Amino acid sequence: MxxxxxxxxxTLMERVFYEMKKVVVGQDAFLERVLVALLAQGHLxxxxxxxxxxxxxxxxxxxxxxxxxxxxxxxPDLVPADLVGTRVYNQRTxxxxxxxxxxxxNLLLADEINRAPAKVQSALLxxxxxxxxxxxxxxxxxxxxxxxxxxxxxxxxxxxxxxxxAQVDRFMMKVLVGYPTEEEExxxxxxxxxxxxxxQPVASTAQLLELxxxxxxxxxxxxxxxxxxxxxxxxxxxxRHGLPELxxxxxxxxxxxxxxxLIEGARALARLRGRxxxxxEDLADLVPDVFRHRLVLSxxxxxxxxxxxxxxxxxxxxxxxxxxxxxxxRDAVPRA
Length: 336
What we know:
Elements: H1 4-23, H2 28-40, E1 44-47, H3 54-64, E2 69-73, H4 81-84, E3 85-90, E4 95-100, E5 107-111, H5 118-130, E6 132-135, E7 138-141, E8 147-152, H6 165-168, E9 173-176, H7 182-194, H8 205-216, H9 222-236, E10 250-252, H10 257-272, H11 280-291, E11 296-297, H12 299-303, H13 308-318, H14 327-332
Parallel strand pairs: 1-8, 1-9, 2-5, 5-8
Antiparallel strand pairs: 3-4, 6-7, 10-11
Helix pairs in contact: 1-2, 1-3, 2-10, 9-10, 10-11, 11-13
């Protein structure tokens, strides 16, 4: 049974997606994950080489939703005050005032987050979790909606600080962005050299807040929640779930945030697809992005060049997907 209201909301997000596609060529899966994170109130960790339109994507999205956009280039000399703000003394008045940092925006791009020391990374992740900043004992909430997209460069590790697993776990998804095809790159060159079209604002931040609330009301069958929990449990005790060959490759499995974020992301993806209920394929599409950064591989896996995506593929092949929980309800509905 089709929900007209869900379809209307999905159409709104389709318009946002269409406006983004005016500027960003290709990268459909990446753009979809950005919208999923926005609706599910999560944050993205993006890994890709320079020049793949990561900054352009966030900037274009901010324009289409009439939201604020901020970009921080992370460097080794950055301090937490450069992100969240600080107290400034005015010599003329003899009083202190608060100067808020660049995190006070709707869409924040944290470029090359692994180039900043741990104290700066922790300051950003605290804002992501609490959605507020405390300066000199006073609390300042960041604007809503609030999305952080942090990027990492996979080809250059000199002068970088690895993100601790406990901090990486706070990101809802880790998305891998690859090179465009030759056809897409031709369109990119043609479009950039010939004048980039301007995206039009088609939504507002107030509408997005409504959509975020509606995402929490999206129906998820208990069997799908059980499937998400089984996937996470199988990464912690593979032998108990019929995957003894994964024991030597996994040092630590996924935390409870993995099934939580998987369900929240599936709800958002269902809304993007015009549904008020989640289907198994919604979960299956998001499992690699939600799980890949939460699996801590053993030295044996690194030596054998076994990556997280290969382990997730084996995991999904062995843990059975539940049957479509709403098929019986759909078949019971009389058709005209």
